[in-house]
UniProtKB/TrEMBL annotation, chain A:
<dbReference type="Pfam" id="PF04341">
    <property type="entry name" value="DUF485"/>
</dbReference>
<keyword id="KW-0472">Membrane</keyword>
<feature type="transmembrane region" description="Helical">
    <location>
        <begin position="26"/>
        <end position="48"/>
    </location>
</feature>
<keyword id="KW-1133">Transmembrane helix</keyword>
<feature type="transmembrane region" description="Helical">
    <location>
        <begin position="60"/>
        <end position="82"/>
    </location>
</feature>
<protein>
    <recommendedName>
        <fullName>DUF485 domain-containing protein</fullName>
    </recommendedName>
</protein>
<keyword id="KW-0812">Transmembrane</keyword>
<dbReference type="InterPro" id="IPR007436">
    <property type="entry name" value="DUF485"/>
</dbReference>
Length: 103, 662
């Protein structure tokens, strides 16, 4: 298996790659930090602000339950949003980069 | 060559069976299922967070007045064994088919990269949702309400890290193992060796917990003795992995995930049918149930709180009945959120798909399956609390592990008794398939680390032809599986629940920091990988060794003395001629023995040095710091120069597509 040799340094300096890399890093780490903060609000909130978790919202269903349930929908939301952006922007930029380099 | 393995597998089962017989014959052999005290029940619930400590569990008074109906869980053995046979037959068919396709190392470890995103998504879900989440979490909800549900959230959120940080780069940068990713721009030999050790450690902890849980569960469900269950599960697991490799393992996981979701969905449907599809009314029923109110008021009484009526019912929907130590809870959350992405058997699943896009798609599909399942567990757990009452559930198993199964039987029996038996047998079979799917994934991950990293790349310098690589892979799978059976047999009496927490903690503190830094930090190098892996792993193991997870005879004795005092007081208060109930008398006898205990823990301690059960909050930062400091202390120009290649590869997939086809 003869693997093709690429000039990795040159590709890394290509403006298209730099654009892809900046967009991706900002997006990925930004949303990752957001999701972590949102998740840890649950155990921290349950332990230190139980009063808020007890507030009834719909019938006997309280804020705590709604908040825990929201974790699922927020996670799914982030996943779908990421897949949308990645399919649209990141994959397109990658394809354009590869075409441009005639690889 | 296959004949050798067939012969060896047969020999293994015979030897194992002989071993079991010998054990059985020994006079000391206790009944396979020890009384389902909290300790015996714990392994099936991998609830590392706040599992009741022994003293507490013993102190839990048996219901003061005998419950009107003595609940028990009886399976129809014929139907249940029939269902097991169907599952074994189907999966064996898959193995035979998969064995024909497994010719190269890539086929064995990564199904030749030929799994689609959707298939991989189902397989990830099947690999991840252990019997603990299936039986344990709905059990926790049925006994402790809100806290059980809160506990399940972290298991899904963990996949955000997998999706955003590791899935696609790993697909683009790696081949079969964690060592592949880490050794890219470092000195391959030491890095692979350390990565393999860490992989084997994590897989062994997790595998042991699963095996012991499996044995106890099978014993409880269908009355197969513990040792026979371990051997049965073990031989099947070895068979799937040795002959079918990743293709068979993947399909066993997909089948299991499908069965699990159908079972959970059907049962939730029946629960909601009873509630008239009115979720608000469903929750009101919980609050107004006198049995739940009674159960909660007893639970909070331990903390010196008096609650009754609707207040106690409402309390069931509020946090704090089970997860009591916030720091421990946060620490567990950290281990879950970061550890899942560092689990070798999860990482390995990304090498089975052809592209980064497929890896992404598979995580998203897995997230919907896993999330959907955990939302359904609320309905199952609360449904069990309403229809079976917490008192009825604890009669069968104090840990609540049987709640889902009891609910299935009851919901089915409400239609017709035979449907109850069928439904129960179906869920038992799902539990069985679950165990097989999870343990197979773990054996494959451990054997890949030994065969691919240590044997092929360290010992043979990467010079091994396909035939030799596949042979090494099969042979190590066989050995790893056989070791798994031996450990499972040896650990019967051990409390292994903390091993799950330990596996996640080691993955989060040892593996994940070095994976993230390898992928995203230019200055990272060999010294960083080794110091990160070493410090993270040692810190998490060390902290668990001095944590409350270990047994401290003096602490147990102190707790037992309190129980003895309470029970004797209770006895003194009884009218003349009456004696303690059977449960109380048993508890008293056990406490009297425990109160005599003296000595120190395995580490020579009187009481825990580190007060949290989950070491993540300390060991994860330590792992990151060690990795960063190690890299900064021994800078390496070549590693920095090669970062461009790693970074371009992981973002674009260049140089990867061809590597798959060899």
């Amino acid at each position: 298996m003869a693997e093709r040799q690429y000039d990795w340094k040159a590709i890394a300096k290509n403006p298209k790659f730099v654009e892809l890399h900046h967009k991706k890093t900002a997006f990925l780490f930004g949303w990752w930090i957001f999701s972590c903060v949102y998740y840890f609000l649950l155990p921290i909130g349950a332990a230190y602000t139980p009063g808020i978790f007890k507030v009834k919202m719909i019938g006997v269903v309280n804020f705590g339950y709604v908040f825990a349930l929201s974790q699922f929908f927020v996670s799914w939301g982030i996943a779908l949003y990421y897949s949308h952006v990645a399919n649209k922007d990141f994959d397109r930029l990658t394809r354009e980069l590869i075409d441009e380099l005639h690889l | 060559m296959k004949k050798i393995f067939i012969a060896a597998t047969l020999a293994l089962s015979v030897a194992a069976a002989a071993f079991a017989e010998e054990q059985k014959a020994a006079p000391a052999a206790a009944p396979a299922v020890s009384a389902p005290a909290a300790q015996g029940a714990a392994p099936a619930v991998a609830a590392p967070a706040a599992q009741l400590n022994q003293a507490q569990a013993v102190a839990t008074p048996a219901p003061a007045k005998p419950a009107p109906v003595k609940r028990e869980l009886k399976t129809n053995r014929t139907i249940t064994i029939g269902m097991f046979m169907v599952i074994i037959a189907i999966t064996m068919g898959v193995v035979v088919w998969a064995a024909k396709q497994t010719k190269t190392a890539s086929d064995f470890y990564a199904a030749g990269g030929g799994i689609t995103g959707t298939q991989n998504g189902w397989a990830i879900a099947g690999d991840y949702m252990s019997a603990a989440s299936f039986l344990g979490i709905s059990g926790l909800i049925s006994l402790y309400g809100y806290d059980g549900f809160m506990y399940s959230v972290g298991w899904l959120v963990a996949y955000i890290t997998v999706l955003l940080i590791v899935a696609e780069p790993c697909r683009n940068a790696g081949k079969y193992t964690l060592g592949d990713i880490l050794s890219f721009r470092t000195s391959p030999k030491p890095v692979r060796a350390f990565a393999a050790i860490s992989t084997v450690a994590v897989s062994t902890f997790y595998l042991t917990a699963q095996m012991v849980g499996a044995g106890k569960l099978m014993a409880l469900l269908v009355g197969i003795p513990y040792k026979m269950s371990i051997i049965g599960v073990g031989v099947l697991m070895v068979g799937y992995v040795v002959f079918g490799g990743m293709v068979a393992t993947t399909w066993v996981q997909i089948i299991k995930a499908g069965l699990l979701m159908s079972g959970a969905f059907l049962l939730s449907f029946l629960v909601m049918l009873k509630a008239g599809f009115n979720p608000i009314g469903f929750f009101s029923t919980i609050v107004s149930s006198p049995d739940i109110q009674d159960h909660v008021s007893k639970l909070v009484l331990k903390d010196g709180v008096i609650l009754a009526g609707a207040d106690a019912g409402q309390r069931f929907l509020e946090p704090g009945l089970y997860l009591k130590n916030p720091l421990d809870q946060i620490s567990l959350g950290m281990a879950l959120v970061l550890g899942t992405a560092g689990m070798p058997h999860i990482l390995m699943r990304f090498f089975t798909v052809p592209t980064a896009q497929a890896a992404r798609k598979s995580v998203i599909i897995a997230m919907f399956i896993i999330g959907g399942f955990y939302i359904l567990t609320t309905l199952l757990g609360f449904g069990a609390a309403i229809h079976l009452t917490p008192q009825g559930i604890t009669q069968v198993d104090p840990g609540g592990n049987m709640a889902t199964l009891m609910l299935a039987q009851q919901m089915g029996a409400d239609i017709a008794p035979v449907i109850g038996d069928l439904f129960l047998a179906f869920l038992c079979a799902v539990a069985f398939a679950t165990i097989l799917a999870v343990v197979s994934g773990l054996v494959l991950a451990a054997s890949a680390a030994i065969a691919h990293d240590i044997y092929v790349n360290v010992i043979k310098d990467g010079h091994a032809d396909q035939h030799e690589q596949v042979f090494a892979a099969r042979a190590t799978s066989f050995v790893v599986g056989a070791c798994g059976i031996m450990i499972g047999l040896a650990a019967e009496k051990q409390n292994v629940a903390h091993l799950v927490a330990l596996a996640f903690a080691v993955a989060a503190s040892g593996n994940l920091p070095v994976v993230i830094l390898s992928l995203f930090w230019r200055k990272f190098n060999t010294a960083g990988v080794i110091s990160g892996l070493l410090v993270g792993t040692i810190a998490s193991i060390g902290l668990v060794m001095v944590s409350p997870n270990m047994t401290y005879p003096k602490v147990v004795a102190a707790g037992a003395k309190k129980v003895v005092a309470a029970m004797e007081k209770k006895q003194a208060a009884l009218p003349a001629g009456e004696t303690l109930s059977e449960n109380d008398a048993k508890a008293l006898a056990k406490a009297k023995v425990d109160a005599q205990k003296d000595g120190t823990s395995m580490m020579g301690l009187d009481k825990p040095l580190f007060t949290l059960k989950n070491p993540g909050i300390v060991s994860i930062p330590l792992g990151f710091m060690a990795a960063i400091l190690g890299a900064l202390a021994f800078p390496n120009r070549r590693s920095e120069e090669m970062f461009d290649e790693v970074y371009v590869r992981q973002n674009t997939g260049l140089g990867m597509a061809k590597a798959v086809e060899h």
